[in-house]
Amino acid sequence: MSHRYTKVVMVVFVALLVAGLPAGCNLAPPPKKERVEKAPKKIPKVSAEKVTVPAAWPKDVPLYPGAEIVSATLTASGQSLMLRTEDTAAEVFNWYYDQLGLRQWKMHRPMLDVARNVASINGSLEGRTLSLRAGTSETEEGYTSLSVTTEPLLKVK
Hints:
By secondary structure, the chain is an alpha+beta fold. The protein has a domain of 85 residues: Kinase associated domain 1, KA1 (TATA-Binding Protein), CATH 3.30.310. It is 20% helix and 31% strand. Strands 1-2-6-5-4-3 form a six-stranded antiparallel β-sheet, with helices on one face.
């Protein structure tokens, strides 16, 4: 009786298994995909002329490692650098937050929105202000644009 019982259970099990599978379903595991190594994406040059850091750029305002300088602006009120990187705004934010803290910058209203890939930090140190903005590049897919601006602290009369 137990041998017959085992056969019935096996038949019922196989029937239930087959009935629960969609038509054309294959029980074999999917074939393994061959892993293809991607070459690192190179940042295309914005212009033929290389933009460099201005000589007057403050030594205590670091530049994001590996970022390309897109433009540099010097005015009577301050200076600004536009950079781009393949890193996310969160990576840029975390690096600047750590680096500015190490350099004793007092940070005001740091903001990071990972879902929208945007970040900002405002800071002050020894009568100067700093503004960092990072976000998805509007002109180049896969890049984060960042703006770093420093100015003398404005005194309200």
